[in-house]
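Report of the visiting student (M.T.), summer placement. My assignment was to run the structure pipeline on a short list of targets and document each run. The first record concerns Malto-oligosyltrehalose trehalohydrolase.
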Amino acid sequence: MAEFRVWAPKPALVRLDVDGAVHAMTRTQDGWWHASVDATANARYGFLLDDDPAVLPDPRSPRQPDGVHARSQLWDPADATWTDSGWAGRSVEGAVIYELHIGTFTEAGSFDAAIEKLDYLVDLGIDFVELMPVNSFAGTHGWGYDGVLWYSVHEPYGGPDGLIRFVDACHTRGLGVLIDAVFNHFGPSGNYLPRFGPYLSSGSNPWGEGVNIADADSDEVRRYIIGCALRWMRDFHADGLRLDAVHALVDTTAVHILEEMATETDWLSQQVGRPLSLVAESDRNDPRLITPRDHYGYGITAQWDDDIHHAIHTAVSGERQGYYADFGALATLADTLRRGFFHAGTYSSFRRRRHGRPLDTKAIPASRLLAYTCTHDQVGNRALGDRPSQHLTGGQLAIKAALVLGSPYTAMLFMGEEWGASTPFQFFSSHPEPELARATAEGRKAEFAEHGWDAAKKGDIPDPQDPQTFQRCKLNWGEVDAAEHARLLGFYRALIALRHNDPDLADPWLERLVVDYDEELRWITLSRGQLRIACNLGGEPVTVPVAGDVVLAWGEPTADGGGTVLEGHSVAILRHG
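After the run finished, the structure tokens were exported:
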């Protein structure tokens, strides 16, 4: 006997379909419908609302073997086989995280294929794998941010059983797993939830209608969201979540949903006996996210920090379009590295208003902010999806890596950056509806034009619906051993090992970070204990006023009195004294 239940306060009648047989359901006063029915362990089921003959999938579907428009399938996490009982877990603070997209990380694009690359990640020195969204979405391939059935796992990747094998394999190798969760909107294809209840709000965001977390009858929607978050960590043993665009979660209640989620995550952490982390993506530069709850913050573990990315990328590359406009100077880079946020109550020319709030660097460690040279957004939201490695020299890429991995911040890599992958990461989708496909393509063109990309004006934007757009984004693992790629990979490995093993690089407090620079000569140095990270961003040799034994370098640094001569586009890590 199986118990079926669904929250559906909108329809006057809900019936249950199990393998084609229709059963009555009983409604309770809180809008939940219940039925106990004989069903096989893998029965297909769904719900009939009022007099509509269409069988709709379960909003809390555990599995969608035939896609988001089809019936759900029973799946019990208790039947899973785990071998990770020895995994004690760890917090993300201070770790090295590796963001990847299952569909393009390997040629096969599955969890099982990704398992075959885990030993490579261990050898690289990675601590956590961060999966771009793996919830169910329409079509066979896409970025995953248009999920509509948040509780189930995208079947083409391997479904829930494939995810369990992947997480188990990660834990066996000492790798933690973060899962990217999108709670700020539903995808446009296959979203039947509004027919069940008030899942949508009266507002909207850039990706569609907002989620009802503060309007009337929102309590159950909040439970739906938090229940989903806990499911990834409880049933799939994930070590935490990356929370997508939390600034789009419009919550006017006294207890913000992020605070509530953090509280329940901490409770679950105590139950499972290992650390669980929440990492928020936010463009607000608001320290309240990562401020402890006993100091009136939300208590989120960490958050992405785009200001650090922008400051590093523009200083090295020279790009200034769109939201890069306020960045580029070494003074800006130094200020951002020292303070965590560049915009901290300061005017943003891109937003045309004041932005952000200062971070209390004496109370909040830098390890609660994530630094990175690129992410899926910072590559995929470029008009052509081109990586920095397609424009910059090996030395420039090494400088960016040293500034991130040598910083006090928690570090994150985007798949393939460590060897300067030549493949792009473009926006791709496989919406089955032609009108939605057209709207997606046009929307991307408009967004790129707004951000100042010339390709948008020339009409060179890759068609997201073209299968070749997806195919060309798959990593080419055959290039890893090529000389020009192997050198950069070796530098990354050595840099990550130094980060793990040198105690000076473990200090998370910005108060002890010293940054010097010369705007005209284009050099910048970071002093961390006895280590000096010296970078020459210019194309000509320059003498940097720091000295010491060379620990790691890109180029051939030479001593010059009390300084060090760095080649153009090079970096050296020196041990002083």
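The radius of gyration is 25 Å. The CA atoms of residues 18 and 45 lie 4 Å apart. I thank the supervising group for their guidance throughout the placement.
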